[in-house]
Amino acid sequence: MSARIPKLLLVLALLAGPAARCSAQQRWEPRVGYVYPAGAQRGSTVEVIVGGQVLQDVTGAYVSGEGVRAVVIKHYRPDDNLDGDERRELQRRMRELRERQLAELARQGRAPSIPDWILGQWRQDPDPRPPNEPAPTGPVELPQHPLLRDLERKDLRQLQEVANTFLEWQYLQRRQPNAQLSDMVLVTVIVSADAPPGERELRLATALGLSNPVPFQVSSLPETREQEPNDPEEYTYLPETAPVYLPAVINGQILPGDVDRLRFHAKRGQHLVIDVRARRLAPFLADAVPGWFQAVAGLYDPGGRRVAYADDNAFRPDPVILYEVPTDGVYELEIRDAIYRGRQDFVYRVVLGEVPFITDIFPLGAQTGARAFANARGWNLPSGQLPLDTGPEGPAVRQAALGESRFTSNPATYHVDPLPCVREVEPNDGRQNAQRIALPVVVDGCIGRPDETDAFQFSGRAGQEVVVEVLARRLGSPLDSVVWLSDMSARVVAWNDDHMIREAILHPDMGTLTHHADSYLSLRLPQSGNYVLTLADVQGAGSEAHSYRLRIGPPRPDFALCATPSSLSMPYGRVVPLTVHALRKEGFDGEIRVALADPPAGFVLSGGIIPPGSTHVTITLTGAMEVPGQPVALRLEGRAAIGGQPVTRPVVPAEDMTQAFLWRHLVPSQELLVYVRPSQWGPISIVPEADEPVPIPVGGTATVRCKTPGWRVPIVGMQVVEPKEKLTISGFASAADLITFTVQTEGDAAQAGLAGNLIVEGFAEWEVSDEERKGNPDAPATRRSSIGILPAVPFTVVEP
Ligand SMILES: [Ca+2]
Ligand SMILES: [Ca+2]
Ligand SMILES: [Ca+2]
Ligand SMILES: [Ca+2]
């Protein structure tokens, strides 16, 4: 009901404990947790740190979209605290470098007034070596760490960051080693001058495969990074870093307990937009409550007074401050986590300056094919009219921004629907003045002030199927809608607040939303006559931004598809699984056939049948017979017959993300990439003979035949991976270019009607060469190992 999800999640997370969804296989896949900085200006070359797990043997970095190239420079092993000799060496270097900096500042006449006791500490001899510890035989190398690069070029504040990170006890305590973020990779990102600004995704490839994607933003503004230490009132005796000139993007990272003060020049009369991107760079954290970096922002004037504060932007967790600057001077923006958490993946970007920013638009959409504009409100907008692309191609929910390439606004979200649209006409508060509408229709309306209600009347027949759908929160409106439908005698026949689809702990359709606030009704009208549909905000809120689109009409059976994960890795010629999720809408229950669209040569999809009524299926992809060297983008689409008409829908690539130890979300990615890597054994080519589902009688058996063109695999055994405990494999034979095995149902677990894909893991036996066995006469002559899964075999359990 309310948006106070984090508290609820806190309780649930404590009850549920960590979700153990990590298989042994997943643990050995490269995972990226963050990239810092998480963006760059077009026309610039920047070095970024990509942090994560299992990133050793990194071979490449990939950024989606046009005009961005990434080159891997170096992998850093997980860092430990310094040992005694390293610590003494760093203390010695720090003493030398600080003296050099102080001398240089004195020469420039800018000597800082550093308290004597601090200078005393800086000039101290390194810690003495314990008497029983042997001296190192050669020069001591400092460990490889991004912060320890180019020590000679660091100023006093940067040196203090090094000292805090590696030498100061109170800061060492703050370092919380986290296995998921222990690896770091230094990557150079080259953004061409004509690269389109916007959201990108960065992935790393290693010898073990392709990582998940993380957001990376291309901007058109100059970019800088925070310089620690920058907590308020911290190290005030050190020379300040120069304030930033606007407009700019400032990048930062919040470590445990960290508070960042970012200094910038502002001028009287500026309409300052402070747009913090934190959660947008990592929408869900699996192991934190709340399940994302909840950034808060405070603005301080030149006198040190806090003049603005934001912990969110309406329902969006990322704060936005709009501020008219009253006097010239150096202002400070403070960024921290709401409850002072922090970690390397608490990465943020702040867009700061007199830049265009759309706060809201109306209407929130238009009819397909119409020439349409929305009225845009906000700050520094070049125009109040936002053109909407309503072309028949493309998704129903789209985005548009205002402005030229250097100063492009944030995108506004809108909706395109083939139904005719009407605007609401006030006053329409209740039954007496309810606005008359003809079905089917999309109404563009707004809950313009607190406690407003909007009523619409239409006539219906007994038994008529009617769907009422509100699109508001999904389109960026703060409205938390509630709808109720009443009959002629004012009796409420149906009502709804939030329409949330949930399969156990999975939210298949929320994307990155934190609260599914939009309402939905589907019913048969009980009698013929006039009906009144009333819409309001469930908490009585209202403003010019509380807009909505309201669809009323017959059900529109349809489906949407997404596939997880969006990064696939396989040895060449082998098989990898992916899950296709089907979101069935308004009564569509039929079979959906999933296929590769314009497949690159060599890729074969198996098991692309989502049985009637099923919400997901594991399909497999068999890889190319050569190694392309680069990840290959694939597109999938699904086909079905709806009302006798063929319908094709794209399969949206997505990541299955866990939030706050429990809930799972399918978060769309920009592309589905498959990375084919060399294999020790070469391609293993197995193709099920039949495309159609294999019928398996209850209590009986069925034979599955697979062709093995090309190299014959020494398969000696198989086991069922999916559906476990429902089907078993009893017989297995391999001859010429054919493999056959027998499938049978397991007890009562498989009933007639059960359908899906049989996923089988194969095991091969290899002769161990004399060379390998040398020195160990007891070593077995053969070795058995998994060759991974075989292509999916569709099946259906039938009556005997
Ligand atoms: Ca920081
Ligand atoms: Ca800080
Ligand atoms: Ca209204
Ligand atoms: Ca609601």
Largest sheet: 12 strands, mixed
Beta strands, count: 55
Counted by DSSP, the helix tally is 7
Alpha-beta content class:
mainly beta
Short description:
With 800 residues, this protein is mostly beta strands. β43 (632-642) and β44 form a beta hairpin.
Features:
binds calcium ion; 800 residues; 55 strands; five-stranded mixed β-sheet; 7 helices; Jelly Rolls; mainly beta; flat
Describe this structure in words.
This protein is mainly beta and 800 residues long. Among the domains are: 84-130 and 139-172, no CATH class; 357-417, no CATH class; 421-502 and 514-548, Jelly Rolls, CATH 2.60.120; 559-677, Immunoglobulins (Immunoglobulin-like), CATH 2.60.40; 687-798, Immunoglobulin-like, CATH 2.60.40. The chain contains 7 helices and 55 strands. Strands 32, 36, 37, 38, 39, 40, 41, 42, 43, 44, 45 and 46 form a 12-stranded mixed sheet that branches. Strand 14 and strand 15 (306-310) form a beta hairpin. Helix 3 (84-107) packs antiparallel against helix 5. The protein is flat, with a radius of gyration of 31 Å. It binds calcium ion (4 copies). One calcium ion is lined by residues 424, 426, 445-448, 452, 454.
